[in-house]
Structure formats: C-alpha cells, structure tokens
Specification:
Distance between the termini: 53 Å
Low-confidence stretches: none
Number of strands: 2
Number of helices: 4
Helix content: over 70%
Order of helices and strands: HEEHHH
Strand order of the largest sheet: 1-2
Mean pLDDT: 87
Radius of gyration: 32 Å
C-alpha cells in the first residue's frame, strides 16, 4: 500500500512534467545525419523536439540498465555457483538421512514396508 502511494506521489508529477515538456516542445526540428553536407543532407529526420527528448531518455535508461546488468554478472555467476553447491550438499544430506534411516530400521519393519 505504501509503495503504491509512493509511486503515485513520484510518478504523477513526473508524468505532468513530461506532458508539459511535450506540449512546449512540439515544433518540428530537423535531425541531420549527414556531417559532410548539412545544407543538402542525404539523410535527415524531421520530428517534434519532444520525441528526440523522450528517445534520449529511453536510450539512457536502456543503456544504464544494460551497464548495470553487465556489472552485476560476477554476482549472478557467484549465486549460480553457490546454488549448485547448496543443491549438491542438500542431496548429499538427504542421501545420508535415507541411509541412516535404513540402517536404524529393524529388519522386520523393512520387509513389511517393502511388501506394500
């Protein structure tokens, strides 16, 4: 409940700010992708300026996420290794408990159980 309220308190003002930026920057702007002939570009894109701003924001978030994910690869690898190790030790402990139960069980009971 608290997280929901907190996300609304943060997300709603950010949404209002983004809408205000989009409304105030809606004039078309040329993005010229030809550095050698800017007067007569071979490739240019004309979009409202807020689209460039939003695209830069999205690209920044994606690149930041990828950089963080790559930076944490060492910890994910350690967690996988430790998880496999823990599973191996758990299997060993279960095997030893089964062996202990089989040794401590009287002979008559083991026959009765196996006859079920």
């Amino acid at each position: 409940m608290f997280r929901r309220i907190l996300s609304l308190l943060i997300g709603f003002p950010i949404g209002i700010i983004l809408v205000a930026i989009a409304v105030s920057n809606r004039q078309p702007v040329d993005l010229i992708l030809d550095p050698f002939r800017p007067e007569t570009p071979a490739l240019s894109i004309e979009l409202p300026f807020y689209i460039y701003l939003m695209a830069a924001l999205v690209v920044g978030v994606v690149l930041g996420g990828v950089a963080t994910w790559m930076g944490q690869s060492r910890w994910r690898q350690t967690a996988r290794t430790q998880g496999r190790r823990a599973a191996r030790w758990q299997a060993e402990a279960d095997r030893l408990v089964r062996e202990q139960d089989a040794v401590s069980q009287p002979v008559g009971q083991s026959l009765a159980i196996s006859g079920r």
